[in-house]
Structure formats: structure tokens, C-alpha cells
Write a structure and sequence with these properties.
With about 210 residues, the protein is an all-alpha fold. About 65% of the residues lie in helices and about 5% in strands. It is built from ten helices and two strands. It has a two-stranded antiparallel ribbon. The chain starts with 17 loop residues before the first helix and ends with a strand.
Length: about 210
């Protein structure tokens, strides 16, 4: 059976030795950062370019801080994570000496556990609220029940107001004045009709309309 393509090199994995760290540090000091793919050819290290980069950035780079994250650094991590989320490389720029990998591990170790615990507590509270029977407000129920006859009551008030208005018009003579004005108009129309036709006009006392005979 034929195998096409060159077989991948079996890079060494596992912890770095002191000799490997020394070779990598000498290479970066002389050639600078960024040429990780050529480290193996130039130094004889049996490590991949990615492994060399991570070893340098996280452990061998000058200026790295050692020890635990301080409370001040923790506050910065919390504030910047609220702005940018899991952009660890961006957050690391504001924490000199701390690597993005170190910040990520610190966040997952200290804060994700607290966040998950808070979420579980909220779910428990929501489940308890769903299991409780709904409570009815007696005052609201009584208000709804009493409000059912509001329409009939308002209708009675409207009829009563109309009756009072008619009584007022009758007492004040306003209704009589309106009726008198209508009768006057009818009499004027009768006179005009007499002048035009020369006939006699008999008034209909029921509605004030005249007929010519």
C-alpha cells in the first residue's frame, strides 16, 4: 500500500527541559520573534513552531510577572471582560507582564464557577415560583365583580339626567318659546299663501300647517 505525501514529523511533546529553553531563548535573542517555523531547523529542537511560540510567550519572554493575580489586576480583568468578552489577547495588553493564556485560565478558574453557581440558584428560584399556586387579589376580584353593573347604572343616570333637563326647560319656559316660534313661522307661511292664491286658508291646529281650498 502506497502512502502519498511526506509523513508528518513526530514533534516532541510534553514538558520542556532546561536545555530546550536555553536553545529557544538564544534563537529568539539572535533572530527575534516571529520566525517560529524555522526554529527547529536552526536550533535542532524537535518542537513545532506553535509549541516554540507558546513557550516563549508564556514562560521565557522577558518582563513576565510571576505569582498570583493581584486584586487590582482582577478588577481590571473584570471590567475589560465586561467590555470585550473573551478577547484575552486584547485584555492582556492592559496587564503588562501577564499573558493572555494566564488571564484566560484565571477567569475560567475563579469566575466561571461563580457564574455557573449563580445561574443554578436563579433556575432554582424560578422553578419554585412556577410550582407555587397563583394568588388572586381579593380587592381586584371584588372590583371586577362590582364593575359588571356599571353600564346599567350609567344608563339609569343618563335617563334621569334627560328627565331633569326636560323638567328644567318646561319650568323655565324655554320649551314654550321654541313651540311659539314654530307657530309664528307657520302663520307667516299661511299669509304668504293667501296673498299668492287669493284663497282661504284653513289652519291645522294639530301641526300648524295651512291648506288652501
Amino acid at each position: 500500500m502506497m502512502v502519498w505525501g511526506a509523513p508528518k514529523q513526530a514533534w516532541r511533546k510534553g514538558p520542556w527541559t532546561h536545555e530546550e529553553d536555553k536553545l529557544l531563548a538564544e534563537y529568539v535573542t539572535f533572530h527575534g520573534e516571529g520566525r517560529w517555523s524555522s526554529v527547529a531547523r536552526s536550533t535542532g529542537l524537535n518542537r513545532s513552531g506553535k509549541s516554540c511560540r507558546l513557550r516563549w510567550v508564556n514562560y521565557l519572554r522577558p518582563g513576565l510577572k510571576r505569582g498570583h493575580i493581584t486584586p487590582q489586576e482582577e478588577g481590571i480583568i473584570v471590567e475589560l471582560h465586561a467590555l470585550w468578552g473573551n478577547k484575552w489577547s486584547t485584555i492582556a495588553k492592559y496587564l503588562p507582564g501577564r499573558t493572555d493564556n494566564e488571564i484566560k485560565n484565571y477567569w475560567r478558574t475563579h469566575f466561571m464557577k461563580k457564574e455557573r453557581s449563580a445561574q443554578r440558584q436563579q433556575k432554582r428560584k424560578a422553578l419554585k415560583l412556577k410550582q407555587q399556586p397563583p394568588q388572586t387579589n381579593k380587592e381586584e376580584t371584588a372590583a371586577v365583580r362590582d364593575g359588571g353593573g356599571a353600564t346599567d347604572h350609567e344608563g339609569g343616570m343618563c335617563e334621569e339626567a334627560a328627565t331633569l333637563l326636560d323638567d328644567y326647560l318646561m319650568n323655565e319656559g324655554l320649551w314654550w318659546n321654541q313651540q311659539q316660534q314654530a307657530n309664528n313661522i307657520a302663520m307667516q307661511m299661511q299669509q304668504v299663501a293667501c296673498n299668492c292664491y287669493g284663497g282661504d286658508v284653513i289652519s291645522n291646529e294639530y301641526n300648524g300647517v295651512g291648506y288652501i281650498f
